[in-house]
Amino acid sequence: MEKSNQQKNKEHYEKAYQKYSIKNILWKINHLDFFLDKAIKTETSWHGLYMHDFASQLKGKKILELGCGDCTNAAVMAQLGAEVWANDIADTPGKIIEEVNSQQGFDKPMRFIPGDFLKNELPDQSFDFIVGKAFLHHLEIEEERLFLKECARLLKPEGEARFFEPAVNNKLLDELRWYTPLPGRRPSKWTPKKFRAWKEQDPHPDRTFSSSHFEKAGKEFFEKAEIYPVGSLERFHQLLPARKPINNRYRQWAFRNEKYLPNFINRSFARSQLIIYFQPKHHNLKK
Ligand SMILES: C[S@@+](CC[C@H](N)C(=O)[O-])C[C@H]1O[C@@H](n2cnc3c(N)ncnc32)[C@H](O)[C@@H]1O
Known about the structure:
Layout: H1 5-16, H2 22-30, H3 32-42, H4 44-49, E1 62-66, H5 72-79, E2 83-88, H6 92-104, E3 111-114, E4 127-133, H7 141-154, E5 155-166, H8 171-179, H9 192-201, H10 211-219, E6 222-230, H11 245-258, H12 263-269, E7 272-280
Parallel strand pairs: 1-2, 1-4, 2-3, 4-5
Antiparallel strand pairs: 5-7, 6-7
Helix pairs in contact: 2-3, 2-5
Bound molecules: S-adenosylmethionine (SAM).
């Protein structure tokens, strides 16, 4: 029997998180200014999720993180003063949260909601923010719709849902990407057999990642959707040698400068995007 998308993700990530390092997370949150500043300047997902000075908005806020993964971001948000609730389909993040809580002694310890989040029994309008860092694109479209509906139910009227996700708005660039080999990470389409074998165990469903899809999907349950393209220049860092200072310097330069490009170029070339949904349509949740 073919595995469900959820099962495939759970198995894949349970394995990926086996070698988690509490020491590493603790180091990051205890050197928070240094870690976050560097991550925001050079790492796409941190750069995207923390756009518009997100870090300064978190103190005292109640936040839900979906697909919390290795829990680094959940711990960062807790260290910034938020009350953090987190969910992941894999169970290991629950253990990580327990261990970080016991070693860090947050004023408000993080809470983990295990298993299928759509079965949660949290009360309406519980959260100020809901965030996902590279999460929505792991869902099939109908599953995503149910998650967005749940986000609208769980957010306060002034609340905001914020997702950092990949963007594919240009078919040609996307195809070129699949033909670019990433040694040690994935084979390219130049080696079709290896590529197919890789694809079979890849936990990403075949679905759209276009900005217009995310705009439309959000507007069913939110009055406003804003999309910020990320990585139109930064994406080319993959052409430079990995883990070399020149790569980091290029990324910093690219993030600083790509925002000056016209929006239509940014949108077409973006590798990722920050999606923000505001004003949940609480009256629209019966459907
Ligand atoms: C690409 S990882 C991102 C992890 C983390 N947010 C980060 O930035 O490192 C995607 C995460 O989503 C989780 N995930 C996938 N499908 C899920 C679902 N249906 N419900 C909850 N979590 C899910 C995976 O287990 C994985 O931890």
